[in-house]
Amino acid sequence: MDCSPPRRLQFLKRLFCSCQDISLCCADSEMPLPQTEASGPELHRPQEPVEPHTPAQGARRASSEDAPRDRPEGSRPGRGTLRRAFSRVSQRASGQAPRGDAGLLRLSGRFLFPSLRRTSDNGPAGDQTGATSEPGPAGDRKGSSKAKEGVGRRSSTGTGPEEAKGTSVADLISKRQLLAAFEQLWHLETGLLAEKASCTQQDPTDLARRAMDVCLHYDGLTEEIRAIVRETLGPDEVDAAALAEVARVVLAEEEAHPKPPADGDFLRTPRGWRQHWEDAVRRSAEERVRQAGAEAAPGAADAAPDVARLLAELGGLVRRDLQKVQREVHPAYAAAGFPAWQTYLSAFHGAVARRFQELTHDARSYKQLYVLLDWATNVYGSPDFLGSQDQTVPSEPLPPLLAPDVWAGLEDDCTSFLETEIASCFDRILQLEQDRWAAAEAPDVLQGLYRTTLSSDVCMLVAEHAKAAGAISTKLEATTLGICARALGLFLPRFKKAFLESGAVSEPNLCASINACEELRTHLLAKFPESFGELEKPLVAATCAFQKQLLQGLQGDVQPLFRVLCTKAWLTQDLLKPLMDKVVAFSHLLEHMAPPLAQETLQEVHRYVVREYLAQALRPHQRFWGEDRLSGSKKMRLEAQAISNTFQELGSEAKWLGQAIPCVADIMGETRKDDIGRHLETLIRSYPDIRRDHVLAILALRRLGCRRNQHLLRRTQALLRAAAQASGSGATGGRVLFEEIKLSTSVGMVITCI
Prior knowledge:
The protein is 68% helix and 1% strand. It is mainly alpha-helical. Helix 9 runs antiparallel to helix 10 (204-232) and helix 11 (240-256) crosses helix 13 (304-334). The longest helix has 35 residues, at 404-438. It is rod-shaped, with a radius of gyration of 50 Å.
């Protein structure tokens, strides 16, 4: 049966109306109502002592002005008094009464219901001097408790039977002698039920009044339990005796009212004080959580610092309160056999969850969402949130702070914000590089290498976002890395285009940009291969573009020097030395480039020199005859050795280039025509990218007859087909030399005329 105040009031009103009908009938018949003798002689209400007017007392007195200060002896509360009591209880049940009225209702029995002042034999206490008790302000429970600490301590530990019997229920409640008050109420309740069952009651109005007295004082006990719970949290010390008294009275009531009665009588209905206590704990936790960051404005623009400060304050408050519950509150309840830790923990968890969900609704930026998700995962969700290692493990696991679908929605919102955030970060990085180019700043040299802030900025950006997201969830980390990879893939072409079109394309800056691409490749691809694997192509493309631009500068300097090779003047002069001097000077620049790319660039320079040397030899402006051809062949061997030695000293590992020029020189100066075929086979096997036109151009240097040329071509035809297949299938290992040598039409015409 529902024992809530509205249901009880409805029942009492119906009972009271029936009593009024009986009284009216008696009045119409001019018959006096029978006086109840079972309740004993009438009470003589003692004069209330005069107290100084305090705010709490004023509130209480203002709410009870209708009650007369003095009554004649033998008087009982009239119908107006009962109606006012019903009105107050109805207001409290509907939530209209202020908190101050709770104290009035707790003490109302002293002014309205003197029948509850009972003696040891359940008779009226009109002749007992001990029934008079000093009233205290009902609105200031904490002050009353402090002022009467000695009385409160004694009542909490157990008041003597004689002392409790001589005190009214309202006074016992005001003194927080809850167990003694409940025992008296239960005794009265038992008497009312026995009287009702025996049908000895001749005055139904008196029965209704006393039943209402019991219900109102039960409500007063409920309010006192709530007040004690509200006072538990906060900076003040915990009243362990009051908490133990609450535990004992809740357990006693549950034992006295184990289940609702079969006849639906509200007097024996369980009062549900354990549920009221739990509700009070939840409201108390909610109030405490609401106090954290009450003045903060997390909805303001870019209020991430305010959100962080609010969460820090909230975490500190919850941590302190739960530590207080475990160290002081829980032991006080546990001493009476009443569990409290799990209830308080669940109450605070629910309050924090509701407050946290409100904050997530106000988040308007990536920073705010990240602060919220990070706090929920790494602060609130950490095992040591309570600040110590010996916290009690909850008997039941707490539900998640947010529902899984709500959490997933927050991560999606965070992802959307993150895409915009990371894109803007890359825009700022590009702007910083452009500012540095405009200022014509030379790149720094760190550990012997040219450095730019590009790679460090990008790596730091990715690492910070990945670490932050990984601290929240693995899924968010993978999503964040994917966003960073896509943004970097779009950034690299923009950076390459902006750099090559700027006026800052110098050799040091090109080396610094190449180093930056290499650092991004080695760091990001090595650390996050699954997320950044697709960046291999754009990074290689950017690196090749910068290398090409760097080599174009060298080619522009040395290209004119190749034009004097394989000429008449070349036979008598050392025209290769100026060319190699420029190559050596260029190699010093490569010392400030990352070793893998420096080696790659040096090999590219080596290949370029050999290739252009062969192109000049196969496209001669003058053809050698007799002794000049032999001298030219000898000089080519010497210069091939000089080129090979120079690049070997510079550190080039492209040894496969060393046979190209000597083979051509051998064919050009070979005196035994039968050995020319052997030299051609060696050349074709060493360089599979060679074609028939290249072979004819080489044979033209030797100036053999048409029949001999046709014989050599037939001899090497199978090797040329095999070389073409190997070159087409990529079996050459990327070694390209003759393929890039384009022969002019005039050479073809000469070959045709042979």
